[in-house]
Amino acid sequence: SSKIRLTSRPEGKPTPEDFSIDQVAHGELEPGQVRVSNEFISVDPYMRGRMNAGRSYVKPYGLGETITGGAVGRVVQSAADDLPEGTAVLHQHGWTDAVQDDASTFQAVPELDGLPLSLYLGLLGMPGLTAYVGLTRVAELRPGDSLFVSGAAGAVGTAVGQIARQLGAARLIGSAGSAEKVSLLKDKYGFDVALNYRDAPIREQLVRALEHEGVDVFYDNVGGDHLEAALEVMNDFGRLALCGAISSYNATERPAGPDNMGNMVTRRLRMQGFIVAEVASEHPEVTEEFRERMTGWLSAGDVTAEETVVEGLEHTVDAFVDMMRGGNTGKMVVRVG
Ligand code: NDP
């Protein structure tokens, strides 16, 4: 099989030269092991942070190390009773087309009637859960609330918009980086207001579009100018759930901070950053609650999975780089095998 490794730490934007793709041979299965052939692998923004040497909330990738992260596949050979051949599994072995390891490092997942396993990397997986915990446990969204989500056309963003609607949000406002994405948000996902931040400064656009209506909840995937824009339009006692700050991940200089933090005080706002895994362990019931509700919404047709699929393990690095600059709509995955 082939594995993609990090060979140098990117400065700013990652390039193909920062990675290598190498062949590895698998030996005979040892007792308790399985061999899994991947169907989809995930490219995620947090991986950019792990490519740096510095401290983050997950430890950095070592040089020469395979890029680990979410992937789904099927058991093709088994020496473990609990994971027979054919079982669909989710795991964290990352950017490879096949992997052999202890059965305990794989999680069996239910087959999805007519839907691809890639949903376990998106709407039914980590990004979907991130959207759900951010809305329900961090922002404490209430029916009737008005919501602004930045990065609205991405994996987490499309989940946030759809979940918020199901939870009774009265008004959805979103931002994204192209005219096509803005149309998608309005026409397919029913956003009341969708703004292209590349057209004009997002703060000006947002203030103009809202006409003094204000928002109760801000779900931030972008940071920087988007956080500043939100601070300008928050209603009193509004909540800001800070999920990510992708506008700074490839930056080589520190971005300027919002110039309107005083609104935190005058409007008595609450701002909270969060990491999905931590919220999920603080609220042991939330993962199962999310799975049940999301599966229900999916099978009722109340939510749909937006995906961008890139073909071939050899295009994984391109897919990652492209996702970081907005080449994806919804969840970006790579189909392998
Ligand atoms: P997305 O699918 O949203 O892909 C990233 C998107 O970021 C791109 O499509 C692009 O969309 C947008 N983007 C890139 N640069 C900029 C910029 N300078 N300004 C505005 N938008 C930009 O990724 P995910 O949904 O997987 O992740 C979204 C966010 O959520 C990230 O910040 C990520 O780190 C965070 N996250 C946090 C977690 C947590 O536990 N806290 C867990 C999972 C994700 P566009 O075309 O609109 O520019």
From TrEMBL:
Taxonomic lineage: Bacteria, Bacillati, Actinomycetota, Actinomycetes, Micrococcales
Region span, Disordered: 1-18
Name used for this protein in its record: Enoyl reductase (ER) domain-containing protein
Domain Enoyl reductase (ER): 14-334
Glycoprotein in keyword set: no
SMART domains linked: PKS_ER
Keywords of this entry: Oxidoreductase
Statement: the UniProt record of this protein carries the keyword Oxidoreductase: yes
One of the Pfam families matching this protein, by short name: ADH_zinc_N
Annotated Gene3D superfamilies: Medium-chain alcohol dehydrogenases, catalytic domain, NAD(P)-binding Rossmann-like Domain
One GO molecular-function entry: oxidoreductase activity, acting on the CH-CH group of donors, NAD or NADP as acceptor
